[in-house]
User: Fold these one by one.
Assistant:
Number 1:
Amino acid sequence: MNERVLLGHGSGGSLSRDLLKDVFLQAYASSELLRLEDQARLNVEEDRICFTTDSYVVDPLEFPGGDIGCMAIHGTVNDLAVGGAKPRWIGAAFILEEGLDIGLLERIVRSAAKAARSCGVEIVTGDTKVVPAGKADKIFLNTSGIGVLGRETRVGADRIQVGDKVLLNGTVGDHGVTIMAAREGLRLGGDLRSDTASVWPGVSRLLERCGQAVHAMRDPTRGGLASALHELAEMAGVAVELQESQIPVSPAVGSACEILGLDPLQVANEGKLVAFVAAESAEEALHVLKETDRGEKAAIIGEVVSGPKGRITLRTEVGGTRVVPLLSGDLLPRIC
Amino acid sequence: MNERVLLGHGSGGSLSRDLLKDVFLQAYASSELLRLEDQARLNVEEDRICFTTDSYVVDPLEFPGGDIGCMAIHGTVNDLAVGGAKPRWIGAAFILEEGLDIGLLERIVRSAAKAARSCGVEIVTGDTKVVPAGKADKIFLNTSGIGVLGRETRVGADRIQVGDKVLLNGTVGDHGVTIMAAREGLRLGGDLRSDTASVWPGVSRLLERCGQAVHAMRDPTRGGLASALHELAEMAGVAVELQESQIPVSPAVGSACEILGLDPLQVANEGKLVAFVAAESAEEALHVLKETDRGEKAAIIGEVVSGPKGRITLRTEVGGTRVVPLLSGDLLPRIC
């Protein structure tokens, strides 16, 4: 095995086959992948599926709490989960820069494989392309995913109603601030770690215990909690009022945001779940989220109100109210 | 609308939303996409589906006969089709370089949308990331796809048998030679055009008319016909003997390959289908392929023989026999 990625690893010839066998198949261990056909065959037991795709271009590739490999799996698992679908199958497509260290690639691929196992999904199809040095930045990774929707499951922005409570499963801003600190070599103090994780355990218990009282869910990634709430509120034609004192922010992220002049509501997350739940089931839903792994900081952070569609307001700790703007440009490129 | 892609177009904020609405939704016009959820919900009428993913990094982005947009749709449609699955849904994920001309992006997106319509597939989910100038080369495009497998359909390398005839639906090498000429500014004469196209019309008619006599199929892309045959023959544990005189090569590609010292069997295609068919149905299958659009040059190019597994030999026009090697390195990076 070579120690660096060569252009020939993308040729479709014997070098491609070697890379596939030595790096990818070893880590994924999927019987569908081992068929080596151009497509995976899957048996679906329900007649409704969910389908999603996302590319990951995060820089740096490895960071406290995770790397591009596990993060891409979690991200795609989460996009299925917030639709109420049980994540099942993943396609993983790598674009590699010529000269990439094979050891780094192996770490990333193994991390993706491990994350997939722990999420209960199978990587069943994939692709690898290699571009000349300087034409990409080390590794870009696309993950697409298929999940299965139960017959009873109905979640979506169209089910949001005035009076719904807004729940969050933990602290905001951890991923974004961690990447920023890692990239710029900032020593911000405290224990900064990406929150990259699957939200499916929380989602599945919510659906089990609260059923159709769960109206809509999102995983607030790029653009942060603010973006996710804006999108949902706009689609639902409602406004949302948040209680600043109820939104969990870790001390490390809080002080980093103060130093850097950032609003933690606009900073990216990779393992957070925001759920709109009927008011009468909100306490039960909170209990469920708190019981989930890493869910001890879960909170009811606000509620749906009638008002200009898409408007998100924040009741501040000192008693005032401010509008939470939708981020226009970019806090930081390549956050995910 | 800006005329260039900005980093903020990848932020997840309002600029991202503008790009989505102005460029992507306009072109795709999919009701699932218009839901603007993070995943598409799909109803499957059969309980077996196929799933595939591929990234496209072709350089140049536009070339005679096509562009990265339509090519990515055709490529994913073809990976499903050769598994015997009717292509249905596509996810399209773009990685864009900051500063990219929006007009170019619009042409590519429209071309993808047009190809999808003409293939009868729907683009139901997508993603866009933007990386700083110099960190990617204009546009990389990942397409993932889902197809539906009929209950009776059984194709795969494991069904290949000694005596099977090998069929091809047209000339080889057109795509690779076209890209090479376009990139290097070579004037090779003749009418060089990429063969990018869907093979599903040919596949569906083959399955309809020849049923289970169709044992296995591939679309010979990177690595050319040689790679596709090697892969299938190795998986099936057989050898293949080709008749050089029967393999269609256009005059333009033939003379270009002579000048450049290339073997047309190793040059990439993007609209070719190679099918292994039971001998007694081979003439019927040939008739079907010849009747398909652009199929007039279809031919029976060889047959499956017992011999060292994976060995591909060529009976030359002058009566000799040579082994067709599997390409090791790369003829040309970024061919697809």
Number 2:
Amino acid sequence: MKKSLGPHPFALPAPVWVVGTYGENKKPNIMTAAWGGICCSSPPCLTISLQKQRASYNNILTNKAFTINIPSQHQVIEADYVGIISGKDEDKFVATGLTPIASQVVNAPYIQEFPLILECRLLQTIEIGVHTQFIGEIINVLAEEKVLGENGLPLLTKVNPPIFSPSERAYYEVGEYVGKSHSMGLVLKK
Amino acid sequence: MKKSLGPHPFALPAPVWVVGTYGENKKPNIMTAAWGGICCSSPPCLTISLQKQRASYNNILTNKAFTINIPSQHQVIEADYVGIISGKDEDKFVATGLTPIASQVVNAPYIQEFPLILECRLLQTIEIGVHTQFIGEIINVLAEEKVLGENGLPLLTKVNPPIFSPSERAYYEVGEYVGKSHSMGLVLKK
């Protein structure tokens, strides 16, 4: 039996992405965003949505660039902190002990300690409601060698990112491997 | 040490969402999409990206509506199957044994057996590259009572959706509860 809950952003699961940008005088800033996802395979693109009052909002519009920094489970406290505090009030790199590194391909900093980085150039800006959506073209992916599988691609269990549950505002771990996509379902083919 | 992997849509984690639409003569269709995410809190909105050759693409444009059906882990084979086969070739409800139910609030069907449903009306259509992004306003959320927590909201471990890893094209389970967002990070506050 289904219960009607009304209009809520309860789409599961959501990511925990830390957005890296430059502010005035190229001061690095980071903030956490859970409203986002991949939006195109070619060119590879992703979206993140931010509210206008965020320091990162103007930073992206000014520099036409941002990085998405994907934390590992042991970095969830740092990722949560930079989503609570404003970069207008505090240097979040100092507060967390994380290290900003200048991207070589876009005008934005990334976080040295995080295992997986997507370097993005701003492609489109879409007004929706209280959030503005930024579509970024993924110019390059940077990954710690230790999170790569035998085929040289990032493995979810090695990156081990926190999973966000919007309806509970809570973080979860990644669980067990289930199987290959575009493959498991073929058992139903007549 | 970070390795440069080039441009790829390797943003982790991604969802496993089944999009419900009506085709000609109100024939229900479903397809799986992993390119999507929440994009606004108010009005609550989400995005999904589809390629133009998909039957669901025209269905959304015609009806200005779709549902997002979130499977539970034991439904991953059905969810994978409806991402492989085209609705132009086969009735996917017959093939999977899933049951289409008419939404009461938007012109689209949802899947009776799936635990969490988001009923969406089309708000914007954004051309990006090989994928087109549809922004849908979440008009209502339907949830099986058994996936709700004590506060009446869906719990990630009870919905228990598969998690998609784009770099491996593989599914994973949800793991253990970690902690509350907007809270865990406060231990870093001076």
